[in-house]
Amino acid sequence: MGFGSTAKKLQKVVDMADDLYAKLNEQMEQLQKLRDTVEETSGRVEAIDREQAEQRALLEAIAEEQGLDTDAILAEAVIEDGTDETTQSAPETTD
To answer: Are the C-beta atoms of residues 42 and 49 closer than 8 Å to each other?
Structure first.
């Protein structure tokens, strides 16, 4: 009697569940790709930080060998740039 309409409704629910499952799998794949990208980026940033620290150490050693005061040089660079190293704010302009 009412089995035909019930079967149609049940099939519709099954189809919706299949679509939802497919979308969920797609979202999970996208999330995994995002995680991979974040991990890769984090590794690159760490490598850049290490390289920058190495370069800074070399520059400071060369400056010390040449009798230069790196703290004074950096302070002067901040004054000339018009920025504060701790805030990285842009220099004020007057019109």
So the answer is: no
Say which residues have a Cβ less than 8 Å from residue 78's Cβ, sequence separation at least 6: 84, 85
Per DSSP, the three-state class of 42 is helix
pTM for the full model?
Answer: 0.57
Within 8 A by CB and 6+ apart from 70, the residues are 59, 60, 63, 64
Q: Hey, how many other C-beta atoms are within 10 angstroms of the C-beta on 73?
A: 13
Cα–Cα distances in Å, from 94 out to 6, 39, 43, 79, 91?
77, 44, 42, 17, 10
Half-sphere exposure of 17 (CA within 13 A, CB side): 6
* pLDDT at site 91: 47
Q: Which token pair is 30?
A: 């996208």
